[in-house]
Amino acid sequence: MQEKLVLAYSGGLDTSVAIPWLKEKGYAVTAVVLDVGQHGKDLDFIKAKALQVGAEASILLDAKEEFATDYVAPVIQGNLLYEGEYPLVSALSRPLIIKKLVEIAHQIGATTIAHGSTGHGNDQVRFEAAIHAFDPNLKIEAPIRDFQWSREEEIAYADAHHVPIPVGEESPYSIDENIWGRAIEAGILENPWHEAPEETYELTTAIVDTPDVADFVTISFKAGLPVALDGEAMSLTTILEKLNVLAGAHGIGRVDHIENRLVGIKSREIYEVPAATVLMTAHKDLEDLTLERYVAHFKPIVAEHLANLVYDAKWVSPLFDALQAFIKVTQQVVNGDVKMKLFKGSAIAVARQSAKNSLYDENLATYTASSSFDQAAAVGFIKLWTLGNTVFEQVNHVHSEQGEQHD
Predict the structure, then answer these.
(1) Is 407 tagged catalytic?
(2) Which is more confidently placed, 357 or 365?
(3) Which of 14, 35, 285, 337 is catalytic?
(4) What's the chain's average pLDDT?
(5) Any catalytic annotation for residue 215?
(6) Which residue of 315, 317, 385, 401 lies most exposed, with the fewest beta carbons within 10 A?
(7) In the annotation, is 90 catalytic?
(8) Domain at 234, CATH number
(9) Per-residue pLDDT reduced to its tens digit, 37-64
(10) pLDDT tens across 308-347, in order?
């Protein structure tokens, strides 16, 4: 009796050639295609193709809502950007993919999970860390990595086993995408001195071709999450879809980044994240209005650690859970609206309000005669604020002129 194996299947060259190879090794392969909002992908065709190339079963799961609610939402609330630039596009989908694969493995009695990652990238770590977390008893197969297939060898194997090479696989680029964004690498991009050609991009318009008139959109937040556009309530998934189109048309969300990979090498990455750019900018602006000073200053420290944990395949970890609990508490007051101006590659917050949680008091902030700020109180405040430094200086004269020395 054949051992049952569950394969994370994308329909690309790597996972397509993996199916006959795994069959030759003696596995009965169940291919799983996860819909996390891939742009322009015919997922029904991909599901059928898995059967065509030898899978015993093929399953298509719609996980867009779960991906948005359970994985994208924490990134928005936390303002998570790896190395200050990358909003964790691919890193977010991996734990969800494995969660679903492990569930299916348990349902069908599979002993093994397989993926199509190479040995160069981060995904091998993310996939396998999640497998070990969800069920350490499951075995792992990674044929592309373990046999170090070159692209030419994969194509030759595909030809020999009558595996159709996917349309676009002649392209030199490696692309991964979901509803949160699009990641592109390889080809000419591997030389960081080469500007990314326009053909690299699909979600964003070149600045020279963007409209000469700005668009404005008001984003409403509740507990740190977007819940409406221009007053119309909608799901996070719908908000992401609409903003990807609207902001992408203005060329917003292109990131060209030299990234420190988990495996220890530097990589040149191109990202298209139009919706993410708009939402993260708006969310941070509303936090500036509603978070108390010390919370606002400390939260970025937590966010940096969280971004590293997500990138480093530590989504399932005690520290992630603990830091995420802190983020959740801070977001209780992040309620209100932010008006965003979208124009020529820029997403700019131009107005904001919070009826219940705004910490901005115009009567305190104004420089006019109507100011309610007690300026006389500043004198005593400054004396107390500097008292410790003043006493230290009087005793030690580190910066001030020393007085007479006495025996």
Answers:
(1) no
(2) 357
(3) 14
(4) 88
(5) no
(6) 401
(7) no
(8) 3.90.1260.10
(9) 988 788 999 999 999 988 999 999 999 9
(10) 999 998 888 999 999 999 999 999 999 999 999 999 999 9
pLDDT at 371: 60
Looking at the fold, whether 188 and 324 belong to one and the same domain comes out as yes
**Tally of CB atoms within 10 A around 271:** 27
| Structural domain contains residue 339 | yes
The DSSP bridge partners found for residue 61 are 34
Same domain, 199 and 148: no
Instruction: Report the helix count and the strand count for the chain, using DSSP H and E.
Output: 15, 14
**CB distance 7 to 15 below 8 Å:** yes
Q: Which of 227, 278, 303 is nearest to 68 (CA)?
A: 227
82 is in an annotated binding site: no
389 is an annotated ligand-binding site residue: no
User: Exactly one of 174, 317, 346, 358 is catalytic; which is it?
Assistant: 174
Active site residue 312: no
299 and 390, same domain (yes or no): no
Task: Please report whether residue 271 resides in a domain.
Answer: yes
Instruction: Tell me which of 35, 58, 123, 145 is the catalytic residue.
Output: 123
How far apart are the C-alpha atoms of 261 and 265, rounded to whole Å?
5
Report whether 157 belongs to an annotated binding site. no
How many domains are there within the chain? 3
Largest CA distance in the chain: 97
71 known ligand binder: no
In the set 93, 94, 267, 354, the catalytic residue is: 94
Known binding residue 247? Answer is no
- Considering the entire predicted model, what is its pTM? 0.87
Domain hosting residue 380, numbered range: 370-396
| DSSP symbols for 353-405 | E-TTT----HHHH--STT----TTHHHHHHHHHTHHHHHHHHHH-SSSPP---
Q: What is the DSSP string of 226-245?
A: EEEETTEE--HHHHHHHHHH
259 annotated as a binding-site residue:
yes
Q: Please indicate if the annotation marks 8 as binding a ligand.
A: yes
Per the model's pLDDT, the better-predicted residue between 201 and 13 turns out to be 201
The 232-233 sheet, strands edge to edge: 232-233, 225-229, 215-222, 336-343, 346-353
What length does the chain have? 407
> What does the pLDDT look like over 102-156, one tens digit per residue?
999 999 999 999 988 876 667 788 888 889 989 999 999 888 787 776 677 777 8
Same domain (yes/no): 291, 303: yes
Question: Does residue 138 share a domain with residue 154?
Answer: yes
Rounded Cα distance between 90 and 181, Å, is 8
